[in-house]
């Protein structure tokens, strides 16, 4: 599956079966189900990949301080591009 193919699934009522949990979270996030995405990020707190997702979600929420905290926990630089660019990069990491 490519990022573009993944994006075509966003109109479906449920995420595709068998997705990596981070991809599932990003699917929910794209569908304005931030809380479901956040629950997935919190489910593995302390695992860098999930902390990185957590950072993105708080950045999207507009909570820059909290986003910065999660970027630091993930040992990742604060993303400097748009939210859409960050979303696509994260999706691409798990396709």
Summarize the structure.
By secondary structure, the protein is mostly helical.
Query: What kind of sheet is the major sheet?
Result: none
* Strand-residue proportion: under 5%
Q: How many strands?
A: 0
Secondary-structure element series: HHHHHH
Number of DSSP helices? 6
Approximate shape: globular
The overall average pLDDT, rounded, is 97
Helical amount: 55-70%
Summed up, the domain count is 1
Oligomer: single chain
User: Cα distance, first to last residue?
Assistant: 6 Å
Q: Which stretches of 5+ consecutive residues score pLDDT under 50?
A: none
Rg of Cα set: 12 Å
Q: Kindly name the structural category.
A: mainly alpha
Describe this structure in words.
This protein has about 100 residues and is an all-alpha fold. The protein has one domain. About 65% of the residues lie in helices and about 0% in strands. The chain is built from 6 helices and no strands. The protein has helices at about 5-10, 20-30, 35-45, 50-60, 65-75, 85-95.
Defining traits:
mainly alpha
How does the SSE layout of this entry go?
Elements: H1 3-8, H2 21-30, H3 34-43, H4 48-61, H5 64-73, H6 83-94
